[in-house]
Amino acid sequence: MPRSLVLVEGDSDRTALLTLAGRLGHDLGGVDVVSMGGITNLRRHLADLTGDRTVAVLHDAGETTYVDRTLAGHDGDVARFVCDADLEDELVRALGIPAVLDVVAAAGDLDAWRILLNQPFHRTRPQDAVLRRFWGTTSGRKDKYAALLTAALEPTRVPAPLAGVLTAVS
C-alpha cells in the first residue's frame, strides 16, 4: 500500500501534479495520486482509507466550505492545499499570459484560441477568463494543457498549492 495519498478534484489536476513531480525530480513512488472525479466524492475517498497514510487534498477555493464540512467529520489528519480560483488560474498566474499563449501556439491551437477570443462575448473579458473557457471547449484539452503548462513552469515559479502538495508527500 502506498505510504501517501493525494486526492485531487479531476484528471487535469492529477496530470499537472504528476508532470510537475517529474519535472522537479520528485519521486512519487509510494504516493497514490487519485482523481476523485469531482470534489463531492471526497467523503467517499476518505471513508475508503485504510492504514496509516499521509493524506493531502488539492482543491479549488470555491470548494472550501464543502471540504471544511467533509473534513470535520473525518478522523485523521489531512493536509489541504487550496488553489485561488482553480489550478488553471494558478498556472496562468505563475507563467503569465504571454508565456501561456506561447504554449498555446506551440501546441498548434493558436487559431482556435483567436476564434474564441474574437467571439463577441469574449472580446472584452480578461484573457485569463477566456483561457479557462478555451481549455474547457474541447474534450481532452484541459488535461493536455495541464501537462503543457506545468512542463513550461520555471522551478522557481511553481504555484504554492502544487509545491505544498509535493512537499507534504515527498
TrEMBL record:
<protein>
    <recommendedName>
        <fullName>OLD protein-like TOPRIM domain-containing protein</fullName>
    </recommendedName>
</protein>
<dbReference type="InterPro" id="IPR034139">
    <property type="entry name" value="TOPRIM_OLD"/>
</dbReference>
<feature type="domain" description="OLD protein-like TOPRIM">
    <location>
        <begin position="4"/>
        <end position="46"/>
    </location>
</feature>
<dbReference type="Pfam" id="PF20469">
    <property type="entry name" value="OLD-like_TOPRIM"/>
</dbReference>
